[in-house]
Amino acid sequence: MAKITLNINKKDYPLDADPQMPLLWAIRDLAGLKGTKYGCGVAQCGACVVHLDGEAVRSCVTKVSRAAGKKVVTIEGLSETNSHPVQKAWQEIDVPQCGYCHSGQIMSAAVLLREKPNPTNQDIDDAMAGNICRCGTYLRIREAIHTAAELQKKAGTKG
Amino acid sequence: MKLFVPKKAATVLSIFIFIVAVGASAFRNDAPVKQITFSTINRDSVESVQAFEIVYKTLMSPRCMNCHPAGDVPLQGDDSHLHAMGPKRGLDGKGVYAMKCSNCHQETNIAGLHMPPGNPEWHLPPAAMKMVFQGKSAHELAKQLVDKKQNGNKDIKKLIEHADDGLVLAGWDPGEGRTLPPVTHAEFKKAWITWLQSGAYAPKK
Ligand code: FES
Ligand code: FES
Predict the structure, then answer these.
(1) Do residues A40 and A21 make contact, with C-beta atoms less than 8 angstroms apart?
(2) pLDDT above 50 for B31
(3) If you placed Cys at B89, which of A95, B9, B72, B183 could pair as Cys (CB 3.0 to 4.6 Å)?
(4) Residue B28: inside a domain
(5) What are the residue boundaries of the 2Fe-2S ferredoxin-type domain, all occurrences included (chain A) (predicted)?
(6) Which residues contact residue B18 at a Cβ distance below 8 angstroms, ignoring those fewer than 6 apart?
(7) ipTM of the complex, rounded to two decimals
(8) Does A93 lie in the same domain as A71?
(9) Which pLDDT tens digit goes with each residue over A65-113?
């Protein structure tokens, strides 16, 4: 065990954790933020995606030591009022089915829209191919990302 | 004796004509004069081609070839299938958007079967210098490796240094359940240097 401070959603969490612990465990079990999901634990599904200094890392295979001194953003911190263009678009299109995969989907989509504000279908496929949805909401995800791109443009914001 | 003089004259004349012709050709801009260069390289095509056999079978093993694919998606496994979820190379070779290599591949291998192997530099060759191994014959690969236009402008010295590149070495530390390259890194490096220093000859095929 070691003392590690994680900055999650702009708040410091002093934690007692093995440096090898998956970041996902620290986020869910130690910091108590349950929005990020565990799907496979082997970097295959994308349910556990969070932002680490802005990149869509898979927290199930990221050691907590890698996150020390960096900024972690989870689905709870993507926006303070659930008003990120991706979140708004997700509501408008009513994307989720069971919802389990969607915190990961949204965190991945947010990185895509930051780097490519007007993504084509191909860009969306390239960015989202690692986020599996076993309910098969892929077409709604694609539509919602186009909607989010529109909302982002109108609001004049970026990611 | 009488015959000897014209013969000698003819020889002198033909040498003279040859010199004039060579001199004249130097001014033709469609046929550049070959520069004479002196090299410390000890050319030996037999030794070079033999060494390249080891280099080739190593580079074409999954641990090396999987990150030198013919397309933009890396390969995986000992059968070199396309990487699950189809991550793309991107301009810098480090992936795109939410699918960057280091989102899953950490600085070190992760313990366990089928877990992502890791290295701080994990990436494919960049889009401008793809350095494809997959599908290349020994002849094609040998030519490509020393072609500065295709190898990131590396001269022999830089190519030799590249044998100890962190990602090259990672091929010999591939993580659980992955077959090692067919020879040790030391054997590979020896063959690589021998191939380069004996003239980097390409096998016929
Ligand atoms: S839980 Fe991390 S990728 Fe599936
Ligand atoms: S909505 Fe159920 S897994 Fe994606």
Answers:
(1) no
(2) no
(3) B72
(4) no
(5) 2-78
(6) none
(7) 0.95
(8) no
(9) 999 999 999 999 999 999 999 999 999 999 999 999 999 999 999 999 9
The answer to whether residue B1 is domain-embedded is: no
Helix (H) or strand (E) holding B166: helix B166-170
In a domain, B30, yes or no: no
What integer pLDDT is reported at residue B44 of this predicted model? 83
Same domain, A39 and A67: yes
Residues in A closer than 8 angstroms to B110, CB to CB, are 61
What is the predicted pLDDT for the residue at B124?
97
**Chain B closest CA to A115's CA: distance in Å?**
7
The residue of chain A with its CA nearest to that of B113 is: A42
CATH number of the domain at A62, please. 3.10.20.30
A-interface mutation test, from B76, B97, B119, most A Cβ less than 10 A away: B97
Chain A contacts of B103, Cβ < 8 Å? 49, 55-58, 130
Residue A116: closest C-alpha in chain B = B97
Residue A92, SS3 per DSSP: helix
In order, the DSSP letters of B1-36 are -TTHHHHHHHHHHHHHHHHHHHHHHTT-TTSPPPPP
The answer to whether residue B176 sits within a structural domain is: yes
The answer to pTM > 0.90 is: no
CB-based contact (8 Å) between A111 and chain B? yes
Q: Whose C-alpha lies nearest to ligand 2, atom 4?
A: A133
Residue % of chain B over a pLDDT of 90: 77
What's the CA gap between B7 and B11, in Å, rounded? 6
Q: What is the pLDDT of residue B20?
A: 42
A46-62 pLDDT tens trace: 999 999 999 999 999 99
Between β-strands A2-8 and A71-73, what pairing exists: parallel, antiparallel or unpaired? parallel
Domain that holds residue B146: 43-197
